[in-house]
Amino acid sequence: MVEIQVNSEHTYQVKIGLPFRESLEKILTNHHKTLIIAPRSLQVQLGLHHSDVFYTEDGEAQKDIATVIEIWKILGEKKYGRKDAIVGIGGGATTDLAGFVAATWLRGIDWYAIPTTLAAMVDAAVGGKTGINTSSGKNLVGSFHSPQEVIIDSEFLETLSDRDFSAGLAEVIKTGIIADVTILESLNQVRDLSGARAIAHELIAKSVRVKAGVVSDDFKEGRLREILNFGHTFGHAIEKREKYALRHGEAVAIGLIYALYLSESQLNLDPAFSQSIKELLLKFSLPVGIVDIGFAELFSLMQGDKKSRSEELRFIGVDQVAHPVWLESVPESIAREVYDRIIQ
Ligand code: GLY
User: Fold this and answer.
1) Residue 145 annotated to the active site
2) Which pTM value belongs to this model?
3) What's the CA-to-centroid distance between 184 and ligand 1, angstroms?
4) Average pLDDT of span 128-143
5) 142, 112 Cβ separation under 8 angstroms
6) 82 carries an active-site annotation
7) Is residue 127 located within the same domain as residue 146?
8) Distances (CA, A) of 316 to 143, 219, 240, 241
9) Which residue is closest in CA terms to ligand 1's atom 2?
10) Percent of the chain scored above 90 by pLDDT?
């Protein structure tokens, strides 16, 4: 088992390679009452015998205020107090939702994250960002509220579909681009998705180490943490435009290419590097471009993204691997030129 510490409003451990059932037992023993939130699609696999379980819809649909209200009602009826806890078992949408419920109930109760997808293991469940979506955009309502522990049990990866595993790799590749070239080197060496699955433990540990370091330095995203948003300004716009039909990681994969092309144009990034990332994404069957859906709509969605300030478009770029650069006000004309390059 590998333990990685995160220092935020409190210190907690991300435990990689720990059987989740054992950890769950301990959590249930340590709290008088615990509400487990998990997607209904995991119900059979989890086989939970606990009394307080709330099953959600899959994916982003669960990150909705109506779901939160339903859960608040249960917590009220069951008289959940400050010493009680929430456990989120699922992908990033579930851990975001569970964390948000925990952040808002009684102004914040303990919660634990048990991510079941690669994307949630390497990104969403680590770092204390919790939230839900609104009709205006993704994660626009939320709170920084760190879990007490993140338990990563690779057993879940065995049942994860290839599509979901690939989607998670987009976040792993993002981490490699912004902070750790050895991640990219390892992924370059594997032949295909099953090769990547074989080194999942190493990829997770390296990605979590980067994320833990960044979050520990800048929990509330004053500046440094923004580097984790590489590829996400365009990625979130695509996700929203496609009504969350794409996996988050698939939208991020397109966003990575967008951010790399922007970096070529604004930071003289070597085009050979963008090409190598494009090939890596394609090796794992991730999308690297889009059909023309109209720049104007995506531009407006990017302006609405919470990472933009006022009407200005802000991006994270790289001028070389592991060297992020803040692009503070990208003119619309440049954003459009880059858009034209990713149309397939
Ligand atoms: N997913 C980006 C962050 O946690 O800051």
Assistant:
1) no
2) 0.95
3) 20
4) 92
5) no
6) no
7) yes
8) 22, 18, 20, 21
9) 228
10) 92
> Which of 124, 158, 192 lies at the terminal end of a domain, its last residue?
158
**Domain span at 280:** 161-342
Q: Per residue in 256-292, pLDDT tens?
A: 999 999 999 999 999 999 999 999 999 999 999 999 9
Contacts of 288 (CB under 8 A, 6+ apart): 253, 254, 257, 278, 281, 282, 342
In CATH, what number is assigned to the domain containing residue 258? Answer: 1.20.1090.10
Residues 297 and 259 reside in one and the same domain? yes
Q: Ligand 1 pocket: which residues have CB below 6 Å?
A: 123, 127, 129, 225, 228-229
Has 232 been annotated as catalytic?
Answer: yes
Domain count, the chain: 2
